[in-house]
Here is the input.
Amino acid sequence: MAKFLVLLLSLFFFSFGMNPIRVMYLTYPLKERDFKKAVDDVKKGIEEKGIKVIRVLTISDAIRARGSTDFPNYYVIFGCEIPEMKSILLKAPALSNVVPCSVVVHQSEDGKIYATLINENVFLSKYGNRLTKEERLAVSKIYGQLRAVLSEKSGRKLKAVRVPPPKEELVYEEEVKDLGYDEFKTLFKTSLDGVNMNVLDVIEVSQESPKFSIFLACNLSYGEAILKDIPQFGTLAPCRVYTYEKPNGTVGVGYINIPFLLQTYSKYLKEDKANIFRKADQDIKSAIKEAKGE
Here is the structure.
């Protein structure tokens, strides 16, 4: 019965006969043979489109510094702070998984270099109805520009397919009732660090009420275990955990729905990798609980 439900969810989400990884992510084989030149080339192409690159996360360098010298080249180009971001995220916080954006440049064992981008339509199908037409177009436009850059650098044009909205939520969210926004935010940062979900940065989407922040959290141990085998998941890296002021004065806190990801991708995950996802989910939930004083 459980296997049947997993299959049913996958079919509903991704349409019959389609590989969920190929639907969720677009992976381009790059022409450039030198890894760092490939990263610089993609970054330059993105910036030439007028898209802001916030930083380049040198994930593989950090993992190798921990002693894993055989970890493949893996960088994340993080950016896309569009003017409409505040309005979009206040209406649909779950879209913090696509705005800001992450473009992953990674190298396989045979030396080939790829760039991977998430399919924004997966999230827009579920939450785009909360936005204005202009806001939806703003998200689609910037991802269209990213795809144009990667198409140019690869010589391959890929289409971001449209999918029906899933019944399941794509994010997990809790409500914090007994703490003010700033107090919870301070406590939550400490709690994330305490479970080794190290906070690399906090993007302040809105510093005036209603406030909205995105914690960029990372656990290199989890990254080392997962990204080598499933590099596409880095398009959600660093892990984005958002907090925001709700209209009723409480605080919302949420992040990608990891159990749903596990259901959807169970066919492609070995049990040890699935357990790492479960551990990450437990860590973030325990950080929320600690910050709430429970």
